[in-house]
């Protein structure tokens, strides 16, 4: 088995999974994206398919309006200004979409 490039479905960053790590991987295992910290569950091994694991997410992901970097924002930060770790730009994320989803679930 060879090393494999994996694209995070949340932030789009590409990382490399080493062949020796892929050999021990099983369906149901959870990987963490090194770039954005998203938890990704293995749903298929051949081909390798990942989906965002809801249990691991504590907030939601938002793109920086200046540089496009994807960062995770926790529920505790709702309505507060956050700083992009990539470019330092400060902004208040839009929570309107998240609130709509929560209302639909009730």
Automatic annotation (TrEMBL):
Q: Mind telling me which Pfam families this protein's record contains?
A: Zn_ribbon_LysW (PF21344)
InterPro entries given in the database record: LysW
Report the domain of life of the source organism: Bacteria
Q: Which sequence ranges form a coiled-coil region, renumbered to this chain?
A: none
Write out the entry's keywords from A to Z.
DNA-directed RNA polymerase, Transcription
**Record GO cellular component, one term:** DNA-directed RNA polymerase complex
List the Gene3D superfamilies. 2.20.28.160
Q: What's this protein's name?
A: DNA-directed RNA polymerase subunit P
Q: Which organism is it from?
A: Thermus aquaticus
